[in-house]
User: Fold this.
Amino acid sequence: MPVAKRVLFLCTGNSARSQIAEALTNHLCAGRFDAVSAGTDARSSVHPLAIETLKRNHVPMAGLVPKDVALFVGQPFDYVITVCDRVRERCPVMPGAEAIHWSFPDPTEGTDEDKQRRLFDEIFHGLERRIRLLMVVTEKQDAEQARGR
Assistant:
């Protein structure tokens, strides 16, 4: 089995979208990907609805805490994936990493908790589809490399 690919998910506050992406990737792709997340303006805690969404979907979340992107500058990554439009413009360059942008709206904006909950669910399922696709694409690339293409 190839070495796990390192993935850094970035958003502004690192309290919702990127946390869900980190937890989902480590859950769905254990051994294939090693995911972490960070923010350019990291909040003090993971958003309660992000935690609720992960629990409802049976995704382990041990160790999830907001982290500043500065902690990861200079570390090697295969992929740096931005999950919000604002951070895309402020994302530090990570040499050697493929930069990918997945645009998701901020589920924490607004005051209607039911609407926020629906948005968290939509983001969870959107991230799940993209992570599964990334896993398939990288498996195909690894297989082609192994065959010497």
